[in-house]
Amino acid sequence: MDPDMLKTILVKECFTYFTNRRNFRLNGELYDAVNIAEDDHWRRLRNILSPNFTSGRIKEMFSIMKHHSHKLTTCLHSKAHNKEVITMKDFFGAYSIDVMASCAFSVDMDSTSNPSSPLITNASKLFRFPILLYIFQACFPIFLPVLELLGFSFFSRSATTFFKGLVEKVRAERNGSSHQVRDILQNMINTQAANGPEHEKQIKGLTDHEIISQATMLLFAGYETSATTLVLLAYSLARNPEVMKRLQVEIDSTFPNKGPVQYEALMQMEYLDSVVSECLRLYPPAARLERVAKETVKVNRITIPKNMLVIIPIYALHHDPELWPEPEEFKPDRFSKQNKQNINQYTYLPFGFGPRNCIGMRFALVMLKLALVEVLQNYSFSVCEETEIPLTMDPEGLVGPKNPIKLKLVTRSVECN
Ligand code: HEM
């Protein structure tokens, strides 16, 4: 059988029959978060959270995102003017966490002006997986229950305690206020009204603990992935100035004279979409997906027994030269309107696939595109002596650069428009 066909069938079957991710356990306080829960528990959480990520809701959150993208471009002004070398993550990380915290809890921590904000330090801590613990549990799964009893967890205890405290503080402030807030936290709190005998047939509302876990997990899942993608977008554009120029031409014709970015027009920008898609192909933040077989299944001639863990290697698929000629090259035209139709959907998986795909995909794309467009309306990215070429990728955790990406910004003159 053609190897491409086989790859497609295997990946497709995984999304058809295997609905659960592998639950590593050792999730500490986050044991009941949506990305960790299984079966009916996961279904209930996903059903409750999904309405927060419809196009309509994201459109409502667009003005909050714009507030932060505007702050981002303003903060970059002096850096560009003084021709400073910029560590891109300081700015894009702050933007991502501020957008996430504002949309989830209506809390504006203003991390863009305050890079040592506790939100950033704690969100980054959540991502530092203890690698020795990871290796130990993988080699000796028999010790998992003991490790769990001893309180070992992949997620930093101090960071989960920080987020728990933050959610509780916001809730307490709301209890005494008559002001109606409409954010993700409030939508979760409102589900509690559905608890009680008269609503037994409806979806059971979230418990207090579940609310804290979902809020923490959304920040965790959304912050690092989006911040790293923005940094790698800046890096890819700085290294490919002809692509950046073409994108700026599209931006300037869509929003003439550095005009305000409008949601509908942003979503219709074709080259912007190709640039973002290509960056997520080259640097998919999640290197692999995992599924567990619910039943024993035969895929082609391979038998996958019940409960077996199956890994879908996103990074390897995205870098396979048979699927993507010259895979290490940054070529947004792979995703042009004509070429897009020929892409096999099981070979391009930055946000996963199937019922357990990324719940925040649309939200993330809007947040990324908005920041990129506003920054490129005003500045161009430029490599400098401090820029690492080629990049060393971090062998641990998410796909991302090992060392901070440093670039310079060049202010665009008004005549550019
Ligand atoms: C560039 C940005 C992002 C990328 C590349 C990304 C990627 C992914 C991937 C690969 C998965 C696993 C999907 C699967 O197993 O099929 C996932 C799951 C998830 N993502 Fe994202 N993500 C991003 C941003 C976000 C944002 C902004 C949020 C929240 C607002 C978010 C929330 C989640 C959640 C809650 C899950 C678990 C879903 C479930 O188990 O039902 N992600 N993401």
Automatic annotation (TrEMBL):
* GO MF entry, a single one: iron ion binding
Q: Which UniProt keywords apply?
A: Endoplasmic reticulum, Heme, Iron, Membrane, Metal-binding, Microsome, Monooxygenase, Oxidoreductase, Transmembrane, Transmembrane helix
Tell me where in or outside the cell this protein is found.
Endoplasmic reticulum membrane; Microsome membrane
Q: Which cofactor does it need?
A: heme
User: Mind telling me which Gene3D superfamilies this protein's record contains?
Assistant: Cytochrome P450
Membrane topology note: Peripheral membrane protein
Q: Which PANTHER family match?
A: CYTOCHROME P450 FAMILY 3, CYTOCHROME P450, FAMILY 3, SUBFAMILY A, POLYPEPTIDE 65
The entry assigns this protein to a family as follows: Belongs to the cytochrome P450 family.
Name used for this protein in its record: Cytochrome P450, family 3, subfamily A, polypeptide 65
